[in-house]
Records
---
Amino acid sequence: MDLKSEIDLDKLPQHIAIIMDGNGRWAKKHGKPRVFGHRNGVTSVREVTEGAAELGVKYLTLYAFSTENWSRPALEVTALMALLVDTVRKELKTLTENNIRLQAIGDLSKLPDRSRKALLEGIEKTKHHTRMTLVLALNYSARWEIMQAVKNIATQVEQKELNTNAIDEQVFENALSTAGMPDPELLIRTSGETRISNFLLWQIAYAELYFTPIFWPEFRKQHLYEAILNYQNRERRFGKISEQIEK
């Protein structure tokens, strides 16, 4: 079945966020070490990025490494950081050919120097690309992001750059890592888990949640199309009732 042709391009989510889960379990299922799953997950990143860009999605945010992931075995963390360097450098040509801009959110200062350098180089070399923005959430935690926003706003108030009465949702959103981006309308999580796991907690207030049992290394364009079609078959009311939406 050609799912792509069934998608209504006029009702595309402009921002899709994905929790890429199941690399380790997929590797275990194949009798391989966890790192094997992470390496194969790169193919899924490429597939989904190309698929989203081809449809016309404007922002794709991938949860690549959370602050909690540092507690994983040291060998796995080291391998993940090395994989980040290799992937960014290898995929830079593809990003350029497809006019895709690379960005990152999270506490990048805690990344190993080599990983951070490769990431920042990729961001710099693609900063003028306009077709789609690929956002990597690295050393990211939504609670950390919210706390940072609160601290930044408090500093502005303390320095009398901002009046307390002027603080509203827009001021707060401008203090987040995702300032300037639309909120995700669709959040996908792979591997059958049904948690948010500290990801974009402010931004997904009205996102449609889509959970699939597919492990991330097996996730392909067709699975992305399925998620988007599922999204398009839902009624987004934003607190209103159906009759109000239909008017």
Note: The radius of gyration is 19 Å.
---
Amino acid sequence: MTRPFILITNDDGIQAEGIRHLWDATRDFADLAIVSPHTEKSGSSLSFTWTKPLTIREYAWDDATPAWSINGTPTDCVKMAISVLLTRRPDLIISGVNRGSNAGRTVLYSGTIGGVIEGVMRDIPGIAFSFSEPSFPALGVVKNYISTIVKHFIDHPIPTGSFLNVNFPLLDGPGIQGIRMARQGRGYWMEKPDKRLHPEGSPYYWLGGQWSTHDEVSDSDVILLQKGYITAVPICVGDLTDHRLLKQHEDAILSLDGNI
């Protein structure tokens, strides 16, 4: 029986502990390839490199898993993996495990998410994994959860145009209570500029961040993470149209033709 082929990427860089968590959790049941940024690219979202050349370095990985690093973003990594490096089309792309939560509307900024979306636009399903802890726990805490989730969505494929956003809760609260499908919350990390003074006298800013609190429904990832649940949010990017707005204004916009 042919094993599934999974491409692994992240936005924390190829030496990040989180990407090794994904590899460790999936290597027993899937063929793997790793393509990741040379260095951390957090907050890069779907950005890609247009104004400078990309360089690819082979990276020595355990068990001879093919691995490369690229001086670009997660989106660059997926583009180059599919267009240049891989001889086999991935059945699934997994990204992470990110250091820090990607709950709520943080997904719009996240490079971890961006790598997965690049695959979704090519009809390759994906799962993004993030951990609310700023530092990673032992692999044993999350390995079985990652393996179980990935296996489930290999056996029950994610529909074309969608991906899964998975977040692990903080461990200093109630502990992991289980896994729940959830709605994407509304909160996100917003700026908290820290003004500093350069030795030469000119000011500069460290953008910083703080969590923006919003009213959340009880089944949002933000609320469920607070209760200790691992959250899995299905997100569709296959059709970005606001169909309500389309229906509301299509006749009115059509009538504007006569006024121009």
Note: The chain has a mean pLDDT of 91.
---
Amino acid sequence: MKRTTLILMALVVIFFALSWIFKAMAFKGVEEHYILQGFLVTLAAFLTLSIMSFLYKDNPFYKFAEHLFVGISAAFWMSMGFWSTIVGNLFPRLSEGMSNFFKVHYIPGDYNFFFYVPVILGILLLMRLSRNYGWISRWSLAFIVGTTAGLNFIRYLRSDFINQVSSTFVPLLVDWQGIGHFFSSLNLSASGQFIMMLANWVIFLGVMCGIIYFFFSKEHTGLFGRASRVGIWILMITFGASFGYTVMGRISLLVGRITFLFRDWLGLNI
């Protein structure tokens, strides 16, 4: 290990210890376990800064925080799966003795033997750890992938495709009572007739132009080509809004971490 790396790690350890001491003293008289609370705040700040250090370049502190996050996440979800799925759902239907051992309510039933199927598939999936019999796990993987694809296909067909198609069947003339009534009641209210009709026309034209853009059996020239270019604008605006929404969500997380560093760790009320 390089001398520079050793000096940097020593400085980080010293800085961590000093931060722990100062935060523990700050929590003294406020928190009952002030030493533990100071350690946790300092550790959270250290891990946050370690992840942010990747903005400079890849380094051992970032790798440590990354591996720690992945390991804790894997352990957490494995524990959740064991206690919620195996103990909470499987054992109560397979064994009264195991239910009593884990202190969960036994659920007798005439079709509980079907629950042996996921047990067998789970055991076959563990064969992936074997070098010679790893191919057996493919049966479980094929069952998982096929079942998930079939269930999600129906779910997405209902929630995305059918609902999306039905949402495009909107009235282009909302509460139409004649041209005179339209102009006499004209206003810019969000629930007004003009805005609702405008929104429905945008939905209708946007969907039609977007479909025309993906219609390649006819050359995109003339009126057809202009509608196709409008479809491009509709798609780009949609993708941009979706990307912006995602970025804003990440920015809110960044703001939360920076607020933690300045307020909870450094104690600055800004």
Note: The chain has a mean pLDDT of 89.
---
Amino acid sequence: MSDPNGKVAIVTGASGGIGGAVAARLAADGFDVVATYAGHSTVADAVIAQAKKIGRRGLAVKVDVACAEDVEQLFSATLDTLGRVDVVVNSAGIMPMGLIAELDVDVFDKVIATNLRGTFLVFSQAAKLLGNGGRIIAFSSSVLAKSFPTYGAYIASKAGVEGLVPVLANELRGRNITVNAVAPGPVGTELFLKGKTPEQIATLGKLAPLERLGTPDDVARVVSFLAGPDGEWVNAQILRANGGFA
């Protein structure tokens, strides 16, 4: 990709810590940004307001990535309002915890619907609508390498995401579109911290050789690389941005 000015990036899950940081970083990089949210729009609205302050166009859209109609409407609204789609980042996700023997199957189904079905639906629309030089970026997790108890549903969903990435990259052969995923280690977001004791958080922060939790900006920089000109030769990869966690 050349100068991103005039190019458009969709970032799902921009109401969360990582998604919001990614959307803000891509706007700072020169992209017009569409930021989605599932519940409250506060963070996504703030990202778009900041993008407009620096001369970028932007749009906040409520989207349930597990709903095919919502995802189709997201892409349609982006094309209608901003005229094109060049980069798609699917960071929307949920992470309820529970032992496999005890987790309600409805909760499991919701995790799969949001994290895996949502990725599939976003991938499908992106594959249909992105043009030459497009970038598709999903989110997995470095926790796959650890197999921690209570992470079963989450790990199952993210393992599926990692399986989709190289398949879509191969399906897009000849179109100059890259497909990758970022797999962060522990990042100090509300999603990650929820339900954990201070002791658990401190322990997890020490697992990586860098001995700290990641920040949303750490992850946003990796997405910026994949979406920018320096990432054009990286394809069908899972980038484990985790400080050496796994």
Note: The domain at 8-185+216-239 is CATH 3.40.50.720 (Rossmann fold).
